[in-house]
């Protein structure tokens, strides 16, 4: 299995502990970005992962590339442009939500053009291509390049997955709906949650209250059916189901719709969230791995949800877990006892 992802990777800066940004006098640093996070998950699961992006020719970008290689990811990085994007995160606790501030204007990835990519080299041996709505939203240039890469993947018979990942600070619902609909004919597997489906496609599950943390799982079947009707190329639709009790406690599950059937995972009560950033990406990485490995739909959604559940216990964007650890959670549950 060889998985290609394309998107922006940023420098992540976070105050130590649970300090607010307004209190910070120093920061912990690491790297993260939706598609890069997925690539790391795939590599951690022992499969080949390639990450496509563009970064400036400086020491910070060098460190980022080395970090990707250290996780087992093969970077396909075009060098050039002005800078690498940065995001600052303030971790929430209890009733105080986490907060993210972006500083990504003029990032190098926005200047990447198809002419800078050797597609034969990029797609050599690739079985699966993954992207998110974030890359589509960050700039017109990134959207154009993404469109070409997605079309090329489809032309070459590569399975394509998309995580809608709607970000209201990047574009409006109307813009997202227009642009993402143009990309859907290339997509085989769509990943989303209820809020993103509502914002991008105007679809909402019956009986759910997003703000109140109430989810009606049965309502997702109707959403999935409407997506399949509008976009016939999509064979599978997966949703993450998050019941947000507080910034520190969530109930977490998922559902996969395939061949007209819905497969619901078990629900995990996450009572002490260490870091939820990258939770959706770890779900996507787990689902891609499971489906590409030939797992049955029920086993695939269980694996994806368990992988994402574990990510909530890990600092940083990247899900530092193995296939064995995920499968152990699926099989035995999470007692938290010391593994000897």
UniProtKB/TrEMBL annotation:
One of its GO terms (molecular function) is kinase activity. Transmembrane segments: none annotated. The keyword Calcium does not apply. InterPro entries: Carb_kinase_PfkB-like, PfkB_dom, Ribokinase-like. It comes from Candidatus Stercoripulliclostridium merdipullorum. This is Sugar kinase. It holds the Pfam family PfkB. Keywords: Kinase, Transferase. Belongs to the carbohydrate kinase PfkB family. Residues 2-311 form the Carbohydrate kinase PfkB domain.
């Amino acid at each position: 299995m060889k998985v290609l992802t394309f998107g922006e990777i940023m420098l992540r800066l976070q105050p130590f502990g649970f300090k607010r940004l307004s209190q910070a006098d120093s920061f912990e640093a690491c790297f993260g970005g939706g598609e890069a996070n997925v690539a790391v998950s795939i590599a951690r699961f022992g499969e080949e992962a390639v990450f496509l992006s563009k970064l400036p020719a400086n020491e910070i970008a060098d460190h980022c590339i080395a970090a990707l290689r250290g996780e087992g990811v093969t970077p396909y990085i075009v060098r050039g442009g002005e800078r690498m994007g940065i995001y600052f995160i303030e971790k929430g606790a209890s009733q105080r939500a986490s907060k993210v501030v972006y500083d990504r204007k003029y990032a190098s990835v926005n200047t990447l053009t198809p002419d800078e990519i050797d597609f034969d080299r990029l797609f050599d041996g690739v079985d699966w291509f993954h992207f998110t709505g974030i890359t589509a939203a960050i700039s017109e240039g990134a959207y154009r390049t993404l469109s070409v890469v997605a079309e090329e993947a489809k032309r070459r018979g590569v399975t394509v997955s998309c995580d809608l990942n709607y970000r209201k600070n990047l574009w409006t619902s109307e813009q997202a709906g227009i642009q993402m609909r143009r990309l859907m004919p290339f997509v085989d597997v769509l990943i989303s949650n209820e809020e993103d489906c509502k914002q991008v496609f105007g679809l909402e599950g019956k009986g759910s209250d997003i703000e109140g943390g109430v989810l009606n799982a049965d309502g997702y079947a109707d959403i999935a059916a409407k997506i399949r009707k509008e976009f016939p190329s999509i064979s599978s639709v997966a949703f993450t189901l998050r019941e947000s009790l507080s910034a520190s406690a969530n109930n977490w599950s998922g559902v996969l719709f395939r061949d007209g059937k819905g497969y619901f995972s078990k629900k995990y009560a996450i009572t002490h969230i260490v870091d939820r950033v990258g939770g959706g990406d770890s779900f996507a990485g787990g689902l891609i791995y499971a489906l590409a490995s030939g797992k049955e739909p029920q086993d695939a959604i269980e694996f994806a949800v368990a992988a994402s559940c574990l990510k909530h216990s890990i600092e940083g964007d990247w899900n530092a877990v193995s296939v064995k650890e995920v499968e152990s959670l699926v099989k035995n549950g999470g007692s938290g006892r010391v593994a000897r």
